Fold each of these.
Amino acid sequence: MRHVAWFLVCVLAATGAWAEAPTYGAEPSQQFFKEWLVCGPFPLAGPDGNVDAIRLPGMYQDYLGGEGTAPIAEGQAVAFDGGQCVWKRFVSPDDRVSLDDAVSKEDKSVAYAYCEVQAAEPKACVLALGSNDGVRVWFNGELVWENPGSRGLEVDSDQIPVVLHAGKNTLLLKVEERGGKWQLAARMLPLDTASLGEHFKLFTVTRADEGTATLKYRQ
């Protein structure tokens, strides 16, 4: 069945039956990404429904069959135990993308957001994110960031140095909703000598389930 689904994905992509993913160029433009393919809601909490822990099961459940590498296209269905979700296009009127509007107003959920960035040549820049609640990030198929836990959206609060490859670059976000607003904000910022201190975090803070904080140096 999985081979049939993969075949259909390839056929639809080749024939143009699905529209292209939202694509951005001329980065880092410092402009917010407002157009995304989104998919959800998927379950976030475990059987007990508790969302107090830092790391929740749904945030680490691979619903795509290869987070960061699975084919993504508008209209594509993603089945999971309990139902299915469909990738759909959403264009936000604001810099802060409302996942309540784009996906669902259902609490205790998680959703994916996907876009692509085209680059004429390799370039280092900063992927600047804010989310409500926690977030995990795959860039060009690699998990480059995770910051789970309950929080409000603060623009540019997570800043991740990345290298744009010449050609297509993929960006996949996974954002959790524990209650209240469900949002994301993302853009590319320049990474240069003058902005290193402003945009590049040399240290990160990670938290265990019991809340213990650890300071780590980013290599």
Amino acid sequence: MVADGRPSFRRSVVALLAARGFEVVGEAEDGPGAIALVSEVDPQVVLLDARLPDLDGFEVASQLLARHADLVVVLVSGHDRSSQVRPALADGVNAAAGFVNANESALATVQQVEARNRALLGAIPDTILRYGRDGTYLDARPDAYSAQLFPPEQFIGRNVREVLPDELARTIIAGIERALESGSMQVLEYEVVVRGEAHWREARI
């Protein structure tokens, strides 16, 4: 996600990220908009202008990190003096997310985060599914067996209500809602019939 008060700069950053294979899930032009949009689109990384027009970028970063512990915030600025704004707050943000003073450095940081996340996911043998808040399949990394039975291209972009039996779809949606409300992992056990045989599965959301 990109948050910057300069439309032309946002367009350039979004184009650059897209060209390098990143998905930009949203754009914000001010601090309150950035805070609201993060809650809505749940990004992994936020590129945040240190000098937003209405609310100091450090303050926005501080609020975001307080509400979203796993979020990575990359502060971007073309002004060296921005690093002098609110030193105590800057130190806190630096410790949590890292301060980046140049756009290319910011992009490199995003790439490092992406590489780290992919390495972590690659070490997990189980199927990993990414859902939207409404139950839409956003991404999938299936194990070899699941990939043969349910190729991701058959369900990515569709809602669980379109793909799964009604009862299982309701269970998944309820699990997503509980996870978002509580902020804690939800463990679901369910039965699925594959080629006429019943299998019990466990899912963690």
